[in-house]
Amino acid sequence: MATLTRTQLAELNVFSTICRKKSFRLAAAELGVSTSALSHTIRSLEERIGVKLLNRTNRAVVPTPAGMALAGQLEQGFDYIKAAVSELQQYRDEPIGHLRLNIPRDALDLLIAPVMESFAKRYPKIALEVAVNNHQVDIIHEGFDAGIRYGEIVPKDMIAVPLTGKLRWVLAAAPEYLAREGCPASPDELKTHSCINMRLGNDAIYQWELGDGENHCRLAAPGQYIFSETSMIIKAALAGLGLAYCLEMQIEEHLRSGELQCVMPNWAHISDPFMMYYPSRHQLQPGLRPLIALIKAQHLRS
């Protein structure tokens, strides 16, 4: 069996990273080198094996057929290597390594932020990187170890672990707004109200889901205010600008204080939990299992 030199392994890693990021610039940023250094490495690799691997234009980097075949094999090979290294963590006294997550903003506020201090104190050797994206991301190709999303949109080919119980979505408004505009009693009556809408990561306006079972309905809520962050929707509702549709857990304090009131409680909607998900062929990255346990414990207490 031929032995690969350090230089050859480095060249293959560079090539695999460029294919995954689909960009010399992004690959260079991840690897911490210049784009010119990557270009030199790819030229050396192609000259050594005698096969052209990449077609590069001003706008894109596209593997040749030979490059695509090599990239697929390398991805599996590097996955096996990462899994083997990950398994060594069980022999350490405490987890050590780098954990990269991709999550929506709501998960940052509700799940990650409340456990950050505890996680940092218990696992000081884990470097945690969290990227916030409200749109769906291919965590494998973007180089993330795991992601968090609402259960119904987790990719089917992933291992998914529930972090919370079922989620309850409610309508709420400030007493000032309800005194001025009245309190709707059914979905039909929402047509005459100001509804504060959410623009999703795919640029669509989220349609409100009300009720469950036979009473379930989905509607495009009318309103002049649209935000891409739940925090802004809640602030607008607190200011008396209209009705907000959000997770009950996001506004519990405002409901207790009376700053917001639940509207049409019989039309609350129950959805799947938040899920932590990761590729099925990967071993759990160091720190992921204890992070999941901390989040679940936090929600058992709340």
From TrEMBL:
The keyword Transcription applies. Gene3D superfamilies: 3.40.190.290, Winged helix-like DNA-binding domain superfamily/Winged helix DNA-binding domain. The keyword Transcription regulation applies. Residues 7-64 form the HTH lysR-type domain. InterPro entries: LysR-type_TF_proteobact-type, LysR_HTH_N, LysR_subst-bd, WH-like_DNA-bd_sf, WH_DNA-bd_sf. Signal peptide: none annotated. Keywords: DNA-binding, Transcription, Transcription regulation. Belongs to the LysR transcriptional regulatory family. This is LysR family transcriptional regulator.
